[in-house]
Amino acid sequence: GRSMMGGNSSGRARRNSDEAVPLKTANTAPKKLAVPPILKPTKTKGDAVYYTLKAKQASTTFKPGVKTQTMGYNGSYLGPTIRVKRGQTVHTKVVNQLNQRTSLHWHGALIPGKADGGPLEPIAAGKTKQTTFKVDQQAATLWYHPHAMGTTASQVYHGLAGFMLVDDQNSQKLKLPKKYGVDDFPVVVQDRTFSRSGQFSYQADYNADGTEGNTLLVNGTLNPYINVKTNQVRLRLLNGSNARTYHFTLNHGATMRQIATDGGFLNHPVKMSRIDLAPGQRAEVVVNTAGVSAKTLALRTNGQRVLQLRLNQKRTGRTTLPKTLNHLTPTGRLNQFGLKHQTIRFSGMGRMVRINDRVYNPNRIDLTAKPHSNQIWTLTNNDSMMGGMDHPFHIHGAQFRILSINGKRPSATQSGLMDVVNLKPDQKVRVLISFHDRGIFVYHCHNLEHEENGMMGQVKVE
Ligand code: C2O
Ligand code: CU
Known about the structure:
By secondary structure, the chain is mainly β. The protein has 3 domains: 33-172, Immunoglobulin-like; 184-316, Immunoglobulin-like (Sandwich); 331-461, Immunoglobulin-like, CATH 2.60.40.420. Helices cover 5% and strands 42% of the residues. The chain contains 5 helices and 31 strands. The strands form 6 sheets. A 6-stranded mixed sheet has the order 1-13-21-20-15-18, with no helix packed on it. A 6-stranded mixed sheet has the order 12-11-14-19-16-17, with no helix packed on it. Strands 2, 3, 4, 6 and 8 form a 5-stranded mixed sheet that branches. A hairpin with a 6-residue loop joins β22 and β23 (354-355). The model is unreliable at 1-13 (pLDDT under 50). The protein binds CU-O-CU linkage and copper (II) ion. Belongs to the multicopper oxidase family. Keywords: Membrane, Metal-binding, Oxidoreductase, Transmembrane, Transmembrane helix. Residues 56-170, 201-302, 350-462 form the Plastocyanin-like domain. GO terms for molecular function: copper ion binding; oxidoreductase activity. It holds the Pfam family Cu-oxidase_2.
């Protein structure tokens, strides 16, 4: 096996994060997909909502008769879905009941640095942290997960993650499937390895270039299915894996229309035969089952079934989608005049990963920006010495638009609001980043082991 220190010990460059550990078929009976409950506020007062999340050690039964040691928020694996509206003020209380430090980061949220929950905001074992932020962004599928230095990757692997869904007037008005758990499903896809005794073997499977598992868990369910009673079903796909990239497809020629990226709706639904998601990325899709005569459909990735859709004989409801979902400025028309430029170079592998030749230092500010300003960042991934591999770039407290990939215009689905973009070896991606609130925010590789190895920098927005 691989050693803790050596990581990918063969010494050969890994060009592609899909190759390291092949996925295998679940050998358990299909089980109904678990849908995380919507978290009830402990208190509501006008536009103010109060939530409590408790991170704790627990055990979960994934395989019949086997208890796996896990971590969860308020439950035993993953966390509840937090559903907020634009304009609300969210008061959060995070209780760390673990025996190690943690933090709680709101991935994709446009909030002040103090509330962001990144590596500068750790919560010691046994401690509680309260933060407040205003929801000041459009409807989107966001998520939350720990982000303390040294414990992020293993805590996420053990189950600390959850959805935060933002609604606004547009999302409430649009004629889209929106009955949570009925025709609108959160779908977090993760890869895990179970040891012979049924435990997650994070330590044994650790890979400094990204820990992968051989078994898919969807919302913590092995081999899941959903019952589909409507013509259209909306899936909010989240790649919640430490390092694996997914390539989602449907069988039986069913159509999948992408309606949203990380940060919100696309301008128009886009028909997709395949959706690639790197760690941390989201895509909302609507599957139209109207013309499908088969009894089941399968959402698939990397040669395996992710989710089975069991189609009710009599399916009802709308079969069309709104033509217009959003009004984002087309990327070709974004005003780039007079903007500050930065070049961000990802390089290295394993324990030698770097951004602009530096390792993360919490006491160092790498870049600066003004609140509510735009900058153009050129993201590169080339390292002729070490071969190279994918590095999913992510930035906190901001959303960005892709201007070009290797000099070419982004596709329609690459033109949405993003907070993660996968940098393949030798790619150069130019993005227009819109900073929002003040504070110190990190940007990093969302391969969680690379992040922990220091592939992270800090931008001070002030
Ligand atoms: Cu999803 Cu810095 O995080
Ligand atoms: Cu990386």
